Amino acid sequence: MEHQRRNGAIYERTAILLGDAGIVALQRANVLLVGVGGVGGHCAEALVRAGVGAITLCDHDVVSATNKNRQLIALDSTVGQAKVERLAARLADVNAQCHITAIDFFVTPEDMPSLLRRDAFTHVVDCIDSVECKTALLEAAVKFGFPTFMSGGAGGRLDPTLVKEGDLYETEGDALARMCRAELRKRGVGYGYIRAVYSVEKPLPPLAPVKQESGGRDRGINGTISYMPSLFGLHLAGMVVRHAVDPAAAEAKMAKSRKKRAAQERSDEERKKRDAAAKARRAGEGAGPPAEPPS
């Protein structure tokens, strides 16, 4: 009885904000979160503490000592252990009523459609740092019709006041988001479908790329600070919670943004045509009448 009381108590303070209907909506949420590092771990915990009904965690990495400055599950006692297993155990201890699935698997771009079919997900959260895998997940999630949320790059940054939320196509100053945007545009994924967390702060440069003995891609090592990945993760969780509680309002807002963006693009295209026509007229007027042939 005491155990049941403690489990139910996790919703009491949240219900003051969201009401009983909001709690029920959260309990119906089934989130797929890929990448459980500094950003993903904090996002997952915030979602479970808020009261989502189910969450699937996917990653294929182990805790290293260098993770301890920013990742929830990075402790001296967990170094060398699978991140998804450690995070799943921690989350189960936070909220025993949440159904938690841990997938310790390195997903490739080709795996994304089958991953999305594993369960009846309601939201997809991308916390991957590889552009190729990130764009594959985002493309598949949008084309499957899932509300989709992504993290930009938290590394190399120090100023928490410069973290923003917005559409992927509105991001600025974020190289990771820019590369994803360019690739997704080629694949037909446009404005108004992917909600992003990003920073407009100019990042400090990483160390030179280091060859990976495990056969993975060579990568530069970004500097990181304790609070920036967690802030990105909490922003992501906040966006998911707000969408889960009132999806109609969230989707209406996105649809309005898409309509506004389309109108702006049409206006820009018409302006370019007018400018081109005016330029052609000026060029013709500047040429003067044709010269008379010599007599």
From TrEMBL:
A biological process from GO: cyclic threonylcarbamoyladenosine biosynthetic process
Region annotation (Disordered) ranges: 250-295
Matches recorded under InterPro entries: ThiF/MoeB/HesA, ThiF_NAD_FAD-bd, Ubiquitin-activating_enz
Chain segments annotated as transmembrane: none
Coiled coil residues, start to end: none
Source domain of life: Eukaryota
Molecular function terms from GO: tRNA threonylcarbamoyladenosine dehydratase; ubiquitin-like modifier activating enzyme activity
Basic and acidic residues composition-biased segments: 262-284
Family matches, as SUPFAM superfamilies: Activating enzymes of the ubiquitin-like proteins (SSF69572)
Pfam families xrefs: ThiF
THIF-type NAD/FAD binding fold domain ranges (all copies): 11-169
Name of the protein: THIF-type NAD/FAD binding fold domain-containing protein
Species this protein is from: Neobodo designis (Flagellated protozoan)
